Amino acid sequence: MTHNPTPTSPLDSAQHLPTFAEIAGMIDHTVLAPNSRREVFVEACRFAVSNRCASVCICPFFVRDCAELLRGSGVKTCTVIGFPHGTAATAAKVAEAQIAMEDGAEEIDMVVNIAKVKDGDWDYVKADIAAVTAAVHAAACKVKVIFENCYLEREEKIRLCRICTELRCDWVKTSTGFGTGGATIEDLQLMKANIGPDVQIKAAGGIRTLDQLLEARAAGVTRVGCSRSKDVLAELHARLGG
Fold first, then answer.
1. What one-character DSSP code corresponds to residue 15?
2. Could you say which of 126, 142, 144, 173 is catalytic?
3. Is the pLDDT of residue 43 over 90?
4. Does the annotation mark 173 as catalytic?
5. pLDDT for 78-89, tens place per residue?
6. What's the CATH number where 43 sits?
7. Tell me: the pLDDT tens digits for 56-111?
8. Per DSSP, which regions of 50-116 are E strands?
9. Within a 10 A sphere around the Cβ of 25, how many other Cβ atoms?
10. Containing domain of residue 202, as a range?
11. Active site annotation includes 109
12. Which residue in 28, 109, 170, 187 is the catalytic one?
C-alpha cells in the first residue's frame, strides 16, 4: 500500500497517534506461509497475547492448538477458508468452516470464488458466500469475506460489497496476501462507500509499516491482517516515546 506523508502529516506527530492498545486491537496477527513450522505458529500466539492483538490468523490445521494457546486471553482464533483462490466447492467451504469452528475458531476469513466473479455468475457467488456466512453465524462466530481485489474490476468490487451487505457479513476484506497485489487506499475508499453501516472493512496484503496501517485506519478500516505486526508495533512504541 502506497504511503507518501507530507511533512505536516498527523502520522508524524505522536500527539495525533492512537494508543498502543487501539492499534494492537486492530491487528489480526497473521501466519499463513505454507512453509511455516510449528514454532512460528506458537510464537505468533504468544506475541498476540502479550500485545493484545485482535486475533491470530493461522492455517486451519493449527486452529485447535491456537485456540488452546489463546484460551482466556481475549485474543481470538481466526482461520482462512477456501484459501487462497476461493475455488473449492461451496459444500467443502462450509465443511471446512464448521470443522474450524469445532476446533475453536471464532472468526472465519473466506475467499470468494474468484473464477465465478470473473464469469459474472453472481447467483453462484452470492449462494457461496451465503452458505458460509449462515454456517458461521449459526455458530455465533464472525465472517470476513475476502475479495482478492487485485484480480477484480471496479464494478465487481462494488457488486461484492452490496452482496456482503445484503447477507450481513461482518467484514469485507481486500486480499489474501497471496495475489498479485494487496490493499490500496483507493480500494478501501471504494469498499467503504459501498458497504452498509453494519459491515466493517479488513485491509490485508502489503500492510508492512505503521504509516500504512494508520492510512488504512483513516480510510475506515477496523481490522488489518499483518504478518509484520512486530515491526509495526515496535515503530508505534518508539513514536509514542516508549
1. G
2. 173
3. yes
4. yes
5. 999 999 999 999
6. 3.20.20.70
7. 999 999 999 999 999 999 999 999 999 999 999 999 999 999 999 999 999 999 99
8. 55-58, 76-81, 107-111
9. 18
10. 10-239
11. yes
12. 109
